[in-house]
Write a structure and sequence with these properties.
This protein is an alpha+beta fold. 28% of the residues lie in helices and 35% in strands. It has 6 helices and 9 strands, in the order αβββββααααββαββ. A hairpin with a 4-residue loop joins strand 2 and strand 3. The longest helix is centred in the N-terminal third of the chain and has 15 residues. The N and C termini lie far apart (60 Å).
């Protein structure tokens, strides 16, 4: 029987990962002491390939480690190969889901793994037209047009300038807030996030109730938005 505290923590991890990934699978297994095998995947746009691919984070956590505030865990650098290299990590329990997500978002996997993933063909043509549009329109125009494909109507938008205190840049970040009144499906969020994040200069995209926030660092030539 699973320790109630372990069960509570693994359920929390499951819930948090499902806010980010399209598919999350957690299996309870046994070898000496019990452990959990976590597999979480989502579609990501890879600029270097100009393709969408489904990246996976494959993680193992021993049950006793989940009772610690600093959790030891391991992840595979190539989930396609059972005998591949596994790397050990330690995370505060409150940051564990975020650090698992970071494996995919920061591509902390082997080049062979990414190279051997099959592209998601039905999204490639969509991306090509998206890149071409960016040259002719502002980022907000392109993003709003793209959201309309998912029946998301942007009612208004706001651009906030965030000052960067850095000796290396004089360009300030922008936080673009798009207000809408649509319910966005979780499955659509991943496609939208991947597409928006593929735009040059975009740092991240966050979905909140009633609006979408986008962090953007413009180039020196691209300081103003229409």
């Amino acid at each position: 029987m699973i320790n109630p505290e372990v069960k509570s923590r693994i359920n929390k991890i499951d819930f948090e990962l499902k806010q980010v990934f399209e598919n999350v699978f957690i299996k309870e297994k046994y070898y000496k002491t019990g452990y959990f095998e976590i597999s979480a995947n989502k579609v990501v746009y890879l600029k270097e390939f100009k393709e969408f691919k489904r990246l996976e984070a494959k993680v193992i956590i021993n049950q006793p480690d989940l009772l610690q505030e600093q959790v030891r865990w391991s992840y595979s650098t190539n989930p396609l190969v059972e005998s591949g290299i596994w790397l050990d990590r330690v995370s505060p329990i409150e940051d564990l889901s975020k650090d698992i997500t970071n494996i995919v978002e920061e591509r902390r996997v082997s080049e062979d793994y990414i190279f051997n993933l099959e592209p998601i063909v039905d999204m490639i043509n969509e991306d090509v037209s998206f890149d071409e549009e960016i040259e002719q329109k502002t980022k907000i125009d392109v993003i709003c047009d793209f959201l309309s494909n998912f029946n998301v109507e942007v009612k208004s938008h706001n651009v906030m300038v965030i000052s960067n205190e850095s000796a290396f840049t004089t360009v300030s970040d922008r936080i673009i807030t798009l207000n809408h009144n649509s319910d966005i499906k979780i499955s659509d969020m991943f496609k939208i996030e991947s597409q928006i994040n593929s735009i040059e200069g975009v740092n991240w995209t966050v979905f909140k109730e009633g609006f979408i926030e986008i962090s953007w660092t413009p180039s020196n030539e691209e300081i103003s938005l229409k």
